[in-house]
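Model: You mentioned two targets. I'll fold them one after the other.
Researcher: Yes, keep them separate.
Model: Target one:
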Amino acid sequence: MKCNKILVALSGGVDSSVCVYLMKQQGYDVTGLVLHLSPAHNSTVAAAQAAADAMGIPLIVAREEEWFQREVVVPWAECYRRGQTPNPCILCNPSTKFALLCREAKKRGFDAIVTGHYAGVEEQEGRYLLKKAKFLPRDQSYMLYRLSQDQLSMLYLPLEGMSKDQVRAIAVQAGLPCAAAPDSQEICFIPDNDYPAYIEARFGKMPEGEFISPDGTVCGRHKGLLHYTVGQRKGLGIALGRPVFIKSMDPQTNRIYLGDAGEEFAAGVLLRDCRWIPFEQPAQPFKAGAKIRSMAKEAAAQIIPLPNQSARVLFDVPQRAPAPGQSCVLYDGDYVLGGGYIESQIE
């Protein structure tokens, strides 16, 4: 990087702490920034302060609870209440985490921002491209596909070529207090990960409704749309004498429609609110690898651009239960082309 002063997103975990250590080792002037976005982030701020103190760097605490509620929590909860399955990190990264990092960096005179994500950024002919991590089991490029060109232009990702074991080994060698800390799995603002309880406590209890069997008859009662997701097979409380799964959910009628096992596969998906990275808008249909959830394998697909930042994705081989609200992210080899939110399945 052709810069000197850098701002590192510091959570106190092993990934962000190793980023600070590596940047200091390379001679950069490093400052940490931790985002306090909810009461659940008190422990994150404390861990970040401990890490900053241990490595001898200043720490900025940005308290942005109202911003986070407006930009992430409310749209995320509303999406769930419509029977969709949003990913809060994908909502948060462009609108909040990286928006606030870039804002603080520009305001305070930093040359670049650094995070502990496992992915890469590369400049080609004035365009900033997002790449997969070299160690694919840790790749987090899926979570970053909505970042803007401005955000990517400021971003450096030191962990692009490392495995988690390598990162932990560096933390041990450096004597960092977080070296043995476990990876965080839960939603950062919901410590117990019980998102239905969190949403109902803040936005009201969801009404019960009807389960509709594959033959079109009412076969039971559900406890509210946000307690379920498309593709779900277990925990339905339905006994039809054969395996069934959630095929679709209708927020207008508050009904959940079931399908028979074997009907889970969709020929494609319709995407809304697409973001593109190598270009502003695709000029014509193209082939790409498509991931319909963060842990899914890529599926070969034909991508057909549509008006109003939408697109049709047609899989070469039908994919199991794409869930409305999730993101479908598109790849060309190691490069992220972009993607969008799944609006509906194509049968």
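Model: Target two:
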Amino acid sequence: MAEKKRDIWNDDDGAGEAKRAEKRSGRLRRFAVFALALMAVLAVVLAAAYRDGTGFDALRRYLNYGGSGEERYRYESSSSNRFAALGDQLVVLSDNTLQLLNRDGGETWSTQVKMSAPALCQGGGRVAAYDVGGRTLYVLDQHGEVFHLETEEDETLISATLNGKGILTVTAQRPNAKGAVYAYSADMTRVVFDMTSGERFVTEARVSDDGSTLAAVRLGQQDGVFISSVVLYDLREAGEKTPFAEHSIPDGLALSTGQQGGRLVTVADTCVVSASCAGKAEASYDCGGAYLRSYSLGENFTALLLNRYRAGNVGRLVTLDAEGAELGSLEIHEEVRGLSAAGRYLAVLYTDRLVVYNESLQVYASLRGINGISQALMRTDGSALLIGTDSASQFLP
């Protein structure tokens, strides 16, 4: 076998070094081109973000989903199905199953339930699934169950809310009372507020995002006139069950409350009332005699679908800021099948298309060919989940 030798005296070291230097230079040039292209893309994104705030959301969608909208969530078809978007996962609740589905087509968590009137609410990165008129409630995060409640046999659930920090508040019916409200600590280990109402019916309650107050919606009559009001309790005073503030809903039935910034916003069938954290009603948007057909109370704004008549599709789509001032208004002359507000976006599902608007009702994106889609769930990053009979897919603008 011949011996392999290297002649260190006759090797062309200068030429080899030149080639290596040329390769390094080529790599540096390619890296510089890539860096310049990346900077150009980021510049465009930052310019868009500075202009309307949507550029960062486009970047989030690209990083989260890679520009692909192929993910599909599959579930059993049921008329009782209820849906909620939880990050990039989908919560599906029916009368017999509660599921948390991931975008890879799998199941993150599930359990069997027995509910006659399933309902969902969400907030603070959590979703609560409960049975209206029943006794069962679950709270989920993106990993699965974090809390399970079974009420007493004579105590049935009316509603549940989760605030911006995921704090749970439950409204229930108790014997010999017109309602009960109790709220939990953020870690769900203890009850921090428990109140029984003997004067007026309580339909909903929620804890403020900073955890300092609890607002409860009460219904009743006074001098033969129906009244609807929001009362506030101080959670910083241990054992305190006397409201420190109250504001009425003028000539309206309070439907839902939420927090937008530092203000408490209540949607009623005739108006939207904006109150300070101290409980003082400071602004109100009057629906002007129009019929409230649908609404979506988002984190940053409120969307209302107001019909001119009880029947038909002639009306207006309106968005309001936290102080009840109009952000946008759009005349509607076609059927609207659903509204969903999240972040700075509003998804409106028409008969033949999905349109995503910004909070001023300027078109951000649209999609046709939505046969089989019954519901759209807006997400804070500007994407939407399209809900079908037995599967859901995502729409990436």
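Researcher: Noted. Anything on target two?
Model: Residues 234 and 240 are 7 Å apart (CA to CA).
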